[in-house]
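Researcher: We're teaching a course module on how sequence relates to structure. For the next exercise, students receive a sequence and then see the predicted structure as tokens, so they can try to spot secondary structure elements on their own. Here is the exercise chain.
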Amino acid sequence: MKWSKALGIPAAAMAAVASYDLLQRRHALLRNFPVVGHGRYLLEAVGPELRQYITTGNDEERPFTRDQRRWVYASSKLVNNTFGFGTDNDVEYTDGYTIIKHRTFSETPPSAAPHAGEELRIPSAKILGGARGRAKAFRPQSIVNISAMSFGSLSGAAVSALNRGAAASGCLHNTGEGGLSRYHRNGADLIFQIGTAYFGCRDEEGRFDLARLKAVVESAPVRAIEIKLSQGAKPGLGGLLPGAKVTPEIAEIRGIPEGRDCVSPSRHTTFHDVDSMLDWIELIAHETGLPVGIKSAVGDMAFWQNLVDAMCNSDRGVDFVTIDGGEGGTGAAPLVFTDAVSLPFRSGFARVYKLFTEAGLSDDVTFIGAGKLGLPDNAVVAMALGCDMVNIAREPMLAIGCIQAQKCHTDRCPTGVATQNPWLERGLDVELKSVRAANYIRALRRDIFKLAEACGVAHPGLITPTDVEVADGNRRAITLAEMYGYQPGWGLPGASDREEITRLMLGVAAAEGGEGSPGARTVP
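Model: And here is the predicted structure for the students to work with:
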């Protein structure tokens, strides 16, 4: 009797499901195969997890492979992040495989310190805003910085953890276009980003408000301002924050209705061409004293040619240029935009850099790269192509708990990183995750420094485009310089910057292992 009751309950439930399946009209599969048809939807739902942890190889998954994620996770937790028994990459047959060429001898002596590079911040070879004489020009103390991710796109706990991690590791933290929140005020120096909707610096009508911009940058440790023209995840589209993420707090910060999809315009309304953009940039720089730059993905090159021409023919200009690759993307976007709009970082950056260099402007601009550059080999390629710094986004998300579930746009991030759900957010321990973010950033800089040392130079910015080759399996290999048409000397800072950054890296105190030397343990 007891067994019949126990079996009767699930049998009745299955009968109810079968009846519903037979009568519903939305799914032909379920009408034809009641009950068992649900198995297909279950497998579809858990397919990404099955592939991620069971069926795919170490180097197959995208956007980050299992090996890449393992390196980030291990580095953030200060556990063994080395790999044994040689590479499992298909070096012999992979087209476009990157090879960094080490040097046998070098005039730059390797550091003998036991923990060389572990706490080294690696300053930028250029002074940000120095070429244009900005009142608050400065030399960024880290070539690795946290890229633009807005509060709203990320949870408050995630932003707090990243900001604390940035402060502990001595790097800059970009606010993203969503405004400057209380979560950005945990100690790190900031880059304030202005997007097309002017969140945080707009009036009641949604128009740019200079007074509000000045007030917000004076209220926090803002070191520079970045004008976002476009981004790698959705070039040609404005920002998109699903209504599920628009909480009362976010609505107040941004000045938008609560609970409704927040869609930024695809283009700025304060300026309409390069000439008016430069006028606006100079106004902001004059009123705030801060360096001002632009961020953009690369598509039609006419804009960049017009910008270079305008800077050559006037005393106006940008202090820095952030190039975002089409492979980047923490934001929600239509699939066709993430897959097919804008150039990948390497080709996009090389085209823009060439225009500035041919015009004699490259020494006057700090170049920043973004788009999957939080891995040492990718970062070194960016530096070899001419980047002075790199911005990283998804990799720090991994460091603070992201498992690449790819649910950022749904408000159901299982680890509390990219959600406004209080229950999910509570799982992210800010204090612990901030330490992991800092650990990862230090590990990334250490490996970049070690690669520079292997190439025989004192600073990663001194790695040349001839120090890196791109191989097509065993058939042939060409240098980055050959691939992108670089002339001798391109990709490097100017002579005076090279001399100064070498002096800073080696330093008078190098013999003693003091602060400023490659072997120094500069604890924040």
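Model: If you want an answer key for the exercise: Residues 511-524 have pLDDT under 50 and may be disordered. The first helix runs from residue 2 to 23.
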